[in-house]
Amino acid sequence: MRYAKGHKESTRERIVQAASRRFRQDGAEGVGVAALMAEAGLTHGGFYSHFDSKEALLRAAVEDSMTQTLDELTRLAKRYGDDVTALARGYLHHQHRDHPESGCAAAALAPELARHAPDTRAVFTVRLQALFKLIEARLPPTLPAAQRRERSMAIFAALMGSLQLARAVDDAALSERILQGGIHAATILALK
Amino acid sequence: MRYAKGHKESTRERIVQAASRRFRQDGAEGVGVAALMAEAGLTHGGFYSHFDSKEALLRAAVEDSMTQTLDELTRLAKRYGDDVTALARGYLHHQHRDHPESGCAAAALAPELARHAPDTRAVFTVRLQALFKLIEARLPPTLPAAQRRERSMAIFAALMGSLQLARAVDDAALSERILQGGIHAATILALK
DNA sequence: CATCTAATATGATGATCGTCATTTCATTGC
DNA sequence: GCAATGAAATGACGATCATCATATTAGATG
């Protein structure tokens, strides 16, 4: 091999990370292969020696960004009270709302992913279930086990939905209230 | 005037309704002007005598589809108990999950709308607030007025998020549990 | 230092994108 | 039935899309 071993691997990683950001920012259909490669400091030509298709890159990017989201949420929770309210406060923060490119992949891409290849959705599903578990672990142990799981799903759905609405709305004050409403709701859903 | 009066208006309406469906099905970037016009039984050429741009059509389509969603939810609620649980059951039904093209525009387009023109987001915002009011009117009057509004936002966010996740996931059983979790959560959030 | 080859760049493919100028056609008023 | 006119069709614009064949170049190996 002529290039240092691991060179191609690290280049691939750079492409995935660039894609991971841009897909969240502009949507999977909102950015082309050429722009993605340029963001990684390359030209578009070499793309297909790294990935079979744009869809394959999306799959890798979903895996990367969902893992990032998982790590970030874990970090956030640990930093503050390590309960659902802490998670909600971190998730529904202005900074998260204003920076989708480094934020939750589910919030940025969920409706689009529903229209993508089964492989891509499968990757998403696995990571999403890890997110559910993250919340579930912070629900009161008094809740029946069967309910804990469904409750964690609903809490995440509420957080994700609130973030999306806060981003879509054209009214700063309303956006703020949506975030607050989401935090309160998550707290309520984490009780009883 | 050479064509029957109202002819152009009804054609425009046909285009909006075709767009209203296709945008929800394939996303705003997932379908082109030519396909939209074809769906309305026309060719692409005449498009710009009806709309200034594709964005203008999106704005009209968002207004149309959000209004449809509002009407449908009102109808659904009235049909069954006329409470939040009835709304949730209707919203998180399999039929809704499996037919985004005739379903909630917010669930189909929210993340994408965040990236669109202020005018488009303003139209969305107005209709979204009507959706909030629809839920708010079905919350127990014992709740403090200030909380009612935020609560209604969170309930809708939870419904919308649950629907999106149920659509994105590649696991039928999980999809089902997400829908159930959303219904239960909405019911809990409508109490106390 | 020269050679070899993997990694990237160049450049082109046909398709589709949004947009628009121009032409054709349908319908109504005379 | 003819002329006037508004609506829709034709066809093209340059840009960008995903994809790929070919050329170049970087850098470790001998």
Automatic annotation (TrEMBL), chains A, B:
Per the record, the domain of life is: Bacteria
**DNA-binding segment(s):** 32-51
Query: Sorted alphabetically, which Pfam families does this protein's record hold?
Result: TetR_N (PF00440)
Do you know which InterPro entries this protein is assigned to? Homeodomain-like_sf (IPR009057), HTH_TetR (IPR001647), Tet_transcr_reg_TetR-rel_C_sf (IPR036271)
Q: Which UniProt keywords apply?
A: DNA-binding, Transcription, Transcription regulation
HTH tetR-type domain location is: 9-69
Q: A single Gene Ontology molecular function, please?
A: DNA binding
PROSITE patterns named in the record: HTH_TETR_2
SUPFAM superfamilies associated with the record: Homeodomain-like (SSF46689), Tetracyclin repressor-like, C-terminal domain (SSF48498)
- Protein name as it appears in the record: TetR/AcrR family transcriptional regulator
